[in-house]
Design goal:
2 domains; binds zinc ion; five-stranded parallel sheet; alpha/beta; Rossmann fold; two-stranded antiparallel ribbon
Length: about 300
Amino acid sequence: MSKCSSCKNESVYFRTNEGRHYCKVCFSKNIEKKVRLTISKNNLIKNGDKIVVAFSGGKDSGNLLYLLHKIFKDNPNVKIVGMTIDEGIKGYRNITIDKCADFCKKLDVEHHIFTYKEYFHTTIDNLAKDNDDSMCGFCGIFRRYLLNEGARRLDATKLATGHNLDDETQSILMNVLKGDLMRFARIGPIPKIKRHIKFVQRIKPLISIPERESALYAMLNSIPAYFTECPYAQRNALRMETRDFLNKMEERSPGIKYSIISSAQRVAPFIEASFKKSNIKECETCGEPTSGNICIVCQTMKKVNIKLSKSS
Ligand SMILES: [Zn+2]
Ligand SMILES: [Zn+2]
């Protein structure tokens, strides 16, 4: 049986890129230290901030809410709030949403729910009945919109999401593979999205935590992580292959994922500067920021309504 490299208790984890063993206690402490460091090094959170955490009920967002609460609970100048989006998916969201509310109650953190039904006058269940298209496309567009809108309604200064090291490196590599370099503006712990007063600044405090360490942290700290999969979830083949490739490379050369992030962060400003700044306007229909005249959500709603009326 291996022993912890720091305290000689029983090891529960071996971190390959450091060559160090961790016991339960030292592992959790180390994860907390890494998250604190990401926050302080990148100036993610400061006094006066109201942080809305996008809390879906998965392990990453559960860890994020738990850790931010733990780090800032004694600081009266930083407020942490949980927010869950209800897409209207029976047998999935209606189950997890109660558990999200319970966890917030347990932490004594304010919890808010925003529903597709209220904002888009429909649910994913309804859309699926009348459309053959993949629901993930609709859902992604609606979710991005509602996360921003919800955070703004709650007067958030920042919107925190649970993206981990693996999510981020996969996205970086996929942007390169697809030639979508504009999306480099979305990478990093505090991504530079096109600035507009109606966009709430996003932050990713868990960006230095690998997927498997996030899963272990959730398990060791009894963070609720609901494994119920969305019934409409579709395998994204490119993401799966990118994930497998990165894991294989990481096994061969430990630390490679960190190198990808730091390389991407270093080139991102140059990529951004090479694109002509496009003017952000406000959508003619709903007033949300958009690069065109009508935002993608209003375009989608229109498209869906036409389809809905055709089929009924
Ligand atoms: Zn230890
Ligand atoms: Zn719009």
